[in-house]
């Protein structure tokens, strides 16, 4: 007798931090794309982005982006962006889901644009951690069922510069104070804050 049951979930979002990706639109303005399919290894962050999003088009054209990490208390601002796309016209499958075009997502969400130092897309001032990054490789969509309206790009980015709020740093170090940093987590389409600290790995430096 097993504790497990076989299921067919509609999504596999097991739990990852939310990232607000900023990217440069063709007219030079900055778009904001909420996403959560991101993971880090060394100086790289690998992203999964749908092929019909304005963010993926901008990133593959410009090869530059900023990964802005919202804290948990920004979840309602993130959700206010959830039904918006910078893509015009709105792709038919997104129209059916209630998405609408929005040219200025900073204005619509009340988030503040902050110039970047090394890349052209702006940063989001309210996000305590920001990575300026460039695209170093990307993987074209693989096999995909013909009835699905969009595919995914897997994009490898190299982090060029990291910015962090002073009040989440261990003073005079390069370390994030993990008691002060509260990432917004996305778990099977629900928003969460992190729970109690349990311990640390032997490699933790602070
Ligand atoms: C919390 C959250 C997480 C999301 N995660 C992803 C993701 O990992 N990859 C993706 O392509 N879209 C993701 N989306 C959907 C995009 O935000 C959506 O495609 C949006 O239209 C992107 O905006 P854009 O078209 O202006 O780039 C997520 C949305 C929300 C609200």
From TrEMBL:
Classification via InterPro entries: Flavin_Rdtase-like_dom, Flavoredoxin, Split_barrel_FMN-bd
Keyword match Nucleotide-binding: no
Cofactor(s) it depends on: FMN
Flavoprotein is among the record's keywords: yes
Domain Flavin reductase like, chain residue ranges per copy: 14-192
Source species, domain of life: Bacteria
Alphabetized UniProt keyword annotations: Flavoprotein
Protein family (similarity comment): Belongs to the flavoredoxin family.
Protein's name in the database: Flavin reductase like domain-containing protein
Species whose genome carries this gene: Acinetobacter courvalinii
Lineage start: Bacteria, Pseudomonadati, Pseudomonadota, Gammaproteobacteria, Moraxellales
Gene that this sequence comes from: ydfE
